[in-house]
Design a protein that fits this description.
Layout lengths: L2 E3 L7 H7 L9 E6 L14 H11 L4 E9 L4 H4 L1 H13 L2 E8 L2 H9 L5 E5 L14 H13 L3 E5 L10 H13 L5 E2 L6 H16 L1
Parallel strand pairs: 1-2, 2-3, 3-4, 4-5, 5-6, 6-7
Helix pairs in contact: 5-6, 7-8
Amino acid sequence: MNFLDLADLYGSHPFVRTALKGVDRDKYVVLTKIWPRREDWVTPSKNGLEEVDRFRKELDRDQIDICLIHCMVNDKWQEEFAGIRDGLAELKQKGVVRAVGVSCHHHGALKLAAADPWVDVIFARINHKGGDEYSCDDTVEAVTETLRRARANGKAVVGMKIFGAGKLTKPDEKDASLRYVIGNDLVDAMTIGMLSTEQVDDSVRRINQTMKA
């Protein structure tokens, strides 16, 4: 595994910087995310420039591979966060970030991302069950259709909630979800929550079996 899913919200930057000290930077890919709403722990800038500059210092990297606007929850995000969109576009043009996009927690937001020329990368919630109960933004059929459209439009898709945010824990459920997501070629990469090395090993084994099948 050489693709790292980070975010300002997670507080993961300094840990990754320490863990990867001495590792060649062309050996791994870093994706991180800007939290765009004011919270007690952050006051967002209007254009994302301050955040990306801070991320680079926290990660000790000159370039961020992928930077997303975090957690889009409606179909107004293009207007609401136009300043951050413009700022990330400027940074991409300068080579400070390689690719930009959004993470989506709303089907309307996902539909916009699938068609938006600005978007390079989409984080999308997908598993073989679908619906709110399994942390998806619509039925599995509806989300699948949108993801196919996104990939046809040249977007890279990272799947999340593959195991339903921890609700699909039985072996047959995990395998069924992986078969659906991988078998239908819906994603370029996946982020799966794991709490132990045993769970890491189990997920890797199941993914490899699915890929071979």
